[in-house]
Amino acid sequence: MASAMTQVGSTRVYEKGLAGAPGSVDLIKSIETFNVRPRWLFVRVETEKGIVGWGEATLEGHSEAVIGAYADFRERFIGWNSADIEDIYQTAYRHRFYRGGEVLMSALSGLDIALWDIKGKTLGVPIWEVLGGKVRERAQVYGWIGGDRPSDVLEQAKARKEQGFTAVKMNAVESLGWLDSPHALDATVKRLEEVKSIGIDVGLDFHGRVHKTLAKQLARKLEPHQPLFIEEPLLPGHVEELKKLYAQTTIPIALGERLFTRQDVRPYFEAGCIDVIQPDISHAGGISETRRIANMAETYDIGFAPHCPLGPIAFAASLQIAFSTPNFLICEMSWKMHYNKGDYDLFTYMTNPEVFQVRDGMIDLLTGPGLGIELNEKLIRAQAEESKDFNWRNPTWRGVDGGIREW
Ligand SMILES: [Mg+2]
């Protein structure tokens, strides 16, 4: 038994989750969070039998809010059977009345990923094995070029090609007003042409910076140059507006990093206004819900391209789904990304970074148990201690008139 159960009228109250079959019970002993540079929030869950699972609950710029949600998780889930991932997910999602949103879902994502890591380690298999086995042997990835305010992209694209990438992503524009000079869009076309000239594919991230007044113009200008996709061409919430834009362009439209759970993606799927769904595994509901979103997308002939400008745990978790999901297309990889400053990059906290080696634009099947990565816990603890008062914040932009602009 994982739990004491009491009967109140027709309702059963389970203090600490469902009972387990003999041998399948390994109770959650501790849940810890680590706020580390460059901007990541790692989660460590340990069981009574000493299995340690790692999750990532990074919500860039809002770590304190997510850490706060973990006080409730500790109160609720310490003492639950770590094997009951779905019951814990459902309890976390549904049993506090309020649900969804970026803060609660990022917290739940980190816990969910850690529990899947424990599941794989307990069984001695990679997570993709438990998700139904592999459907591919390698997964395509893309790196970033250009930073927040894209420039010198040709040199950076050449470097990416040398590193083994066959596709990159860059921001399409700097900040724009609701209506801006059409000349502001010409540089975007030039940059895309430059990067494509070396034989590399390019996804263009509009980053929600472009309002619909200019999004339709930009899409038309880009169309002859065939970007791999345009991402967040409009801010989330504009389903009807996106539907109109979709009808005006043949460029694949991608979106999803600011959508959480199937409930959030549903209107976009039903409206038929996207080609690629980009859930972020650290926000959308961890491995459990991200896999479900990908499966749901398949029924609409929508491809799955995990958003992942985050740390090694989120990246490994995304790849576990990539290896076991038929409509996977390509995964974002934050190695040498502009946010990873100083000594802190994708491999910093790993002791087996070789598993993420990029060859011919792809990463080989992860074969280790659980997430398939090994972490330097001592360094994580030391860095979290050093970063106690550090919180990454995104830039805040204003136009020349002083008005706020989207970042
Ligand atoms: Mg984006």
Summed up, the helix count is 12
Q: How many whole angstroms does the radius of gyration measure?
A: 21 Å
Return the CATH architecture of the largest domain. Alpha-Beta Barrel
Shape: globular
Total DSSP E strands: 17
The oligomeric status of these chains comes to single chain
CATH fold-level assignment of the largest domain: TIM Barrel
**Bound ligands, named by name, code or SMILES:** magnesium ion
Mean pLDDT: 95
Q: Structural class, judged by helices and strands?
A: alpha/beta
**In sequence order, what are the helices and strands, one letter per element?**
EEEEEHHHHEHEHEHEHEHEHEHEEEHEE
Keywords: Lyase, Magnesium, Metal-binding
Domain Mandelate racemase/muconate lactonizing enzyme C-terminal: 150-252
Protein name: Mandelate racemase/muconate lactonizing enzyme C-terminal domain-containing protein
GO molecular function: galactonate dehydratase activity; metal ion binding
How would you portray this structure in words?
- 34% of the residues lie in helices and 17% in strands.
- With 407 residues, the protein is α/β, with parallel strands linked by helices.
- It folds into two domains: 5-124, 2-Layer Sandwich (Enolase-like, domain 1); 129-374, Enolase-like C-terminal domain (TIM Barrel, Alpha-Beta Barrel), CATH 3.20.20.120.
- The strands form four sheets. Strands 6, 7, 8, 9, 10, 11, 12, 13, 14 and 15 form a ten-stranded mixed β-sheet that branches. The protein has a three-stranded antiparallel β-sheet with strand order 3-4-5, with helices on both faces.
- Helix 2 runs antiparallel to helix 3 and helix 10 (286-298) packs parallel to helix 11 (312-322).
- The termini are far apart.
- The model has no long low-confidence stretch (mean pLDDT 95).
- Magnesium ion (MG) is lined by residues 205, 207, 231-232, 257.
